[in-house]
Amino acid sequence: MDYMGVQRLEGKVIGPGAPGTIRVRLGPRETVVPLDVIPPELRVPNSQFVAVMRGGSMLRVEPESVKWKQIMERIRTVLNSAWDPIGVSGEVSDEYDGYVGGIYSIIIHGAADDDIAERLLRIEVDAMGLEGSSPGHRAEVVRRLRALALPRLSRSK
Fold first, then answer.
1. What φ, ψ does residue 88 adopt, rounded to 5°?
2. DSSP one-letter code for 127
């Protein structure tokens, strides 16, 4: 399965948009999405959800915001405390949030420890332009991620 490019963002309904659309906040930005992407029960202002994104497109909505926030905070804590390849977690707590969804996806879908460590290395080298941390360092990050015992979201099949 290809989990590259899949990202989960916290979403919140702001209000109606043009006919057939709804205004939402996805992560830090406000945007307009087709009305049919948001389930009817979430189409009211201030409804919260998790948007599963690939590129700039919303693939689906997961209404399990509370559970996703817990998952995100747990993974964020490990990425900031144990990984932090660019050394900014003390100043910017959400620096690595864009990688949380992909890391969550490969863990929950049964990726081997080596695959998770390779994902971290690819982020360091390909996305950040760094040389990459040591295999031992990445193994420790993977160990800490595994210790989180992350719950499954209902659509994480």
1. -120, 5
2. I
Helix (H, G, I), strand (E, B) or coil at 37: helix
Contacts with 4 (C-beta within 8 Å, 6 or more apart), sequence order: 102
Per-residue pLDDT tens over the stretch 22-79: 999 988 889 999 998 898 888 999 888 888 888 888 888 877 766 877 888 899 999 9
Which residue type does 102 have? Answer: G
Strand order in the sheet with 6-16: 29-34, 21-26, 6-16, 48-54, 57-62
Counting every residue written for the chain, the total comes to: 157
Residue with structure tokens 């081997």?
112
Q: What pTM, to 2 d.p., does this model score?
A: 0.64
pLDDT band (50, 70, 90) for residue 130:
very high
Architecture of the structural domain at 6-62: Beta Barrel (2.40)
Dist. CA 7–CA 61, nearest whole Å: 12
Distance CA 102, CA 55 (A): 12
Domain ranges of the chain: 6-62, 65-146
